[in-house]
Amino acid sequence: MHNIQMFRDTSWMVGLVCVSASACASAPKAHKPDASSGADASSGADAFVSADVFVGADAWVKPEAASADASVTRETGGLRDGVVAVDLAPWIAKPNIFIQISSGGDHGCGLRPDGTVSCWGLNVGHQSSPAMGAFIQVASGKSHSCAVRADGSVACWGDNAYGQSTPAAGSFTTISASVDHTCGLLTDGTTSCWGKNTYGETKPGPGAFAKITTGESHTCGLRVDGTVACWGDPLAVKPTPAADKFVQISAGAWHTCGLRADGSVFCWGDNAYGQSTPTAGLFLQISVGTNHSCGLRSDGAAVCWGDDSDGQSTPPTSTLVQLAAGERQTCGLKVDGSATCWGNDSGWQSTPMAGPFNQVAIASHGCGLRADGSAACWGDDSDGMATPLPGPFDQVSVGDWASCGLRADGSVVCWGSNYFGSTDPSGPFVQIASGIEHTCALRRDGGAACWGSDGYGQASSTAGPFAAISAGGFHTCALRTDASIDCWGDYAPGTPPSPPVGAFAAISAGWFLSCALGFDGAATCWSKYADEVLPPPPADAFIQISAGLAHACALRPDGSADCWGKDSYGNPTAPAPSGPFLQIVASNDTTCGLRPNGFAVCWGNYVIPDP
User: What is the pLDDT at residue 87?
Assistant: First the structure.
């Protein structure tokens, strides 16, 4: 599995979502200084942008309303239009609705009522980019998935190193995907398999089967009479019960479990983690993961046994109608059709949905700010960075190693690793921004405070006053109150960079890339390395911009988004889904947008499907 480091820019902080002019009518307004008054536009607290700005945790400005010599206030944290024309009727908050789910190694997929498939989790091999069309069943393997269409044909996507995503011809009724091989049942009951065949796992014996299940290096079939036949790795298939009869079977890495007609469960194969020693009681359904097993009781409660090192065998108290055990995570389908997952989430494979939130921030993990000010996080939690402290917060910001929250009193608290000295500084602050290994915050007097790794000078801020700040990979950029840009840290070989000259309304520092918006909404991007120089941004007026590793995304006044650049493999960056969005944030090779209903949609290396 790829270890992908990402960060997010925090120049866009959504503390209050305005979807109409009336929603912001009572908000305090900032005013552009009158040139005839002799006011100094860079004098700190008296510097403002225009009469259309909402000042608070976030500040918004209509680009066409500001002039080139406009200044910005320290409370901005980035400027964007506060009135996005969005019809909320289609976006009433609702969860993803599925009729069947499947959990794999680093991703999961769900089948919607209309037959389309949505996937979530890691997407570096396109395993979370499902085929288009309508299907009747979906099955997720370690890094690939396959689905059966109504006509019996099969479509697969994701890793195909061993041919596991190149389906055989024929008309199938059901399919099962594993690590490196896939098997399906044809309409006549015979089995067809493709992919890796180290132990003969893709070479079924003769006869017809009613159900099929694939383990890491073995396969088992359930005959019409309820007996089981297994083939492949001897460590997994022996001792296969010869005379016992089952109504369902499910295979893990090196073990298999069967559900009898009376609801009892019997397992065989590897039992190093207790995965083949089922919990006592009766079940309606079973699902087996790599080294753990789960069963669904008649009251909808999930019970799991075996490896619990990532919490995959500790289910929530939800009432469920289906279980899907994966490599180190388990997912369940709720009565309302929404999916819930528990266990490992390092690839976002346990995050089928995120929200509703007022603001989102992403890195190797993500955090969202709820309406009540509490934070909820997902993704890599190896150092506790996805286990937030109690709120309420006005803003959240995440880096690769730690996350931070800004409270209403201006204090900052952080959680996660303190390896780089991510201690909570003394405030008060008005904005916070996290990079890969450092964090910066903007004080009320316009000064910047940075902490964490300073190996490249990224935490050694220059003197303010600043209006907004954005922490990137190994550099930091800030917007001064006179609307000019200042950057520090490892930005160019040898000497610090020279950011573009002029007046800007917003700044976003990426990994090495940085971008800014002019007061006319035009985007400007620049990079440390020549091979990361982006193609010209779309000729458009934007209200928000966010820079990633070698790509950037921007938001228009109508809520539509545009992305340009490339991913870390040199491929064109993933295009943005259709809008509208209320916030957009780019990380390494991942971008997330916040829908009007508060749910996050993410694309690129990590995927969270549209609600």
Answer: 62
> For residue 484, what are the contacts with CB-CB under 8 A and spacing of at least 6?
501, 502, 503, 504
Q: Measured between alpha carbons, how far is 515 from 251 in angstroms, rounded to an integer?
A: 49
Q: What percent of the chain has pLDDT over 90?
A: 68
Helices (H), 32-71: none
Range among 254-268, 397-411, 510-524 rated most confident: 254-268
Task: Please indicate, yes or no, whether residues 129 and 258 belong to a single structural domain of this protein.
Answer: yes
For residues 281, 284, 288 and 291, what is the CA-based torsion angle, rounded to 10 degrees?
Answer: -20
Same domain, 249 and 366: no
Whole-number Å distance between alpha carbons of 219 and 299: 30
Pick from 25-29, 174-178, 411-415: least confident: 25-29
Helix H segments across 331-402? none
pLDDT of residue 65: 29
- Please answer whether residues 165 and 197 qualify as being in contact, where contact means their C-beta atoms are separated by less than 8 angstroms: no
Strands laid side by side in the 211-214 sheet = 211-214, 218-222, 228-232
Those residues with Cβ within 8 angstroms of residue 531's Cβ, 6 or more apart along the chain or in another chain? none
Does 167 sit behind a cis peptide bond, omega within 30 degrees of 0 on the bond before it? no
Residue 43 lies in a domain: no
Domain boundary residue, one of 279, 296, 317: 279
- Residue at 448 is within a domain: yes
- Domain with 224, as residue range(s), is 100-279
Query: Which helix (H) or strand (E) element contains residue 429?
Result: strand 429-434
192 forms beta bridges with: 184
- C-alpha closest to that of 434 among 461, 395, 392, 403: 403
Which amino acid, 43? S
Report the alpha-carbon distance of residue 294 to residue 258 in Å, rounded. Answer: 11
User: In the listed set 233, 263, 279, which residue is the last one of a domain according to the structure?
Assistant: 279
Residue 125 falls inside a structural domain: yes
pLDDT mean across residues, the chain: 83
Which of 575, 556, 577, 580 is closest to 564 using CA atoms? Answer: 575
Which residues lie closer than 8 Å to 474 by C-beta, 6 or more apart? 435, 436, 437, 455, 456, 458, 489, 490, 512
| Cα–chain center distance at 263 | 37
pLDDT band at 55 (very low <50, low <70, confident <90, very high): very low
Overall domain count for the chain:
2
What are the structure tokens assigned to 338, written together? 């929404």
Q: Provide the phi-psi class of 142: left if phi over 0, else alpha when psi is between -120 and 50, else beta.
A: alpha
How sure is the predictor about 1, in pLDDT bands with cuts at 50, 70 and 90? very low
Tell whether 273 and 367 lie within a shared domain. no
CATH number of 123's domain? 2.130.10.30
Q: Which amino acid is at 342?
A: W
Length of the chain: 611
Q: Are 418 and 535 found together in one domain?
A: yes
Across the chain, how many H-helices and E-strands are there?
1, 45
- Same domain (yes/no): 397, 546: yes
Is the predicted pLDDT of residue 250 greater than 80, yes or no? yes
Q: Is residue 22 part of a domain?
A: no
